[in-house]
Specification:
Layout (H helix, E strand, L loop, with lengths): L1 H16 L31 H14 L3 H16 L6
């Protein structure tokens, strides 16, 4: 018990001798998305396993990710069904 009191006493003395070190907050600018990149949202769908296998094979052959294949496929499909209006 005496050892514990000595440790606490030495800690109190140390705190009295050394001023408290206040951490300095580092300010960093917010990273903005490039103007040509749209904000993204998550899409979660269930598809047949055979279609997923075809997508993976196509991705390996064409060096594309599943995300890129999904974006391309949905864009082509929607453009064929209902083209975007001209701005």
């Amino acid at each position: 018990m005496e050892d514990y009191k000595n440790k606490l006493g030495s800690l109190a003395d140390k705190l009295k001798r050394e001023p408290a070190k206040t951490p300095v907050q580092e300010v960093r600018p917010v990273k903005e998305l490039p103007a040509d990149k749209e904000e993204e949202a998550q899409l979660n769908t269930w598809i047949p396993k055979s279609l997923l296998k075809r997508m993976r094979s196509y991705g390996v052959d064409q060096d594309l990710s599943l995300k890129a294949i999904n974006i391309l496929a949905l864009t082509y499909f929607l453009d064929a069904k209902s083209p975007r209006p001209e701005k």
